[in-house]
Amino acid sequence: MRVIAGEFRSRRLKSIPGLATRPTPDRLRETLFDILGSRVEGAVFLDAYAGTGAVGIEALSRGAARAVFIERGNVAERVLRENLTTLGIEDRALVVLGAAASLIARYPAGIVFLDPPYRRESEYAQVLKILGENPPELVVVQHSVRLALAEKYGAMERRRVVKQGDNALSFYRAS
């Protein structure tokens, strides 16, 4: 796994062995950030279910002012912190250990990225409902193309879906 573009372009990130996490493929991350474009610059970016931190680190590499990483797993949190330290960007990041559903409302961000592991598929609706109560500027959800997400969650509605292989990115904004 590597950083696609920006300040840390081509830098390798440490990954987590096994199937406990589902890293966002490089090509999908590239598509995501091509769509986000300059919106990332200066933004606070929240990477929920962060795993290795690849998505939030990509945001920092492309000019995000700050990134908040929420991760539940101890091994993933340790790898995430190692990746931030290796790149020297710990001061631009906040790593929070715990469940996204109970923490996400505490950390306001302009852009929120969600990618729960497959075994926690039920958390998509739970976290999206929480975000729909006080929507950030943009919520991007990575999910299986087979998972049907609602068009609206509270005051948020889906504005775009991009499919790539077995993955989809759903973009939600305040309605």
Strand percent estimate: 25-35%
Identify the CATH architecture: 3-Layer(aba) Sandwich
Based on helices, strands and strand pairing, what is the structural class?
Answer: alpha/beta
Mean pLDDT: 93
CATH class: Alpha Beta
Number of helices: 5
CATH superfamily: Vaccinia Virus protein VP39
How far the N terminus sits from the C terminus, by CA atoms, comes to 35 Å
Q: Tally of extended strands?
A: 8
Order of helices and strands: HEHEHEHEHEEEE
**Domains counted in the coordinates: how many?**
1
Strand count, sense and closure of the main sheet? 8 strands, mixed
* Unreliable residue stretches: none
Q: Can you give the helix content as a percent range? A: 25-40%
Q: Looking at the chains present, what oligomeric state does this protein adopt?
A: single chain
Radius of gyration: 15 Å
Major sheet: arrangement of strands: 3-2-1-4-5-8-7-6
Under CATH, the topology is which? Rossmann fold
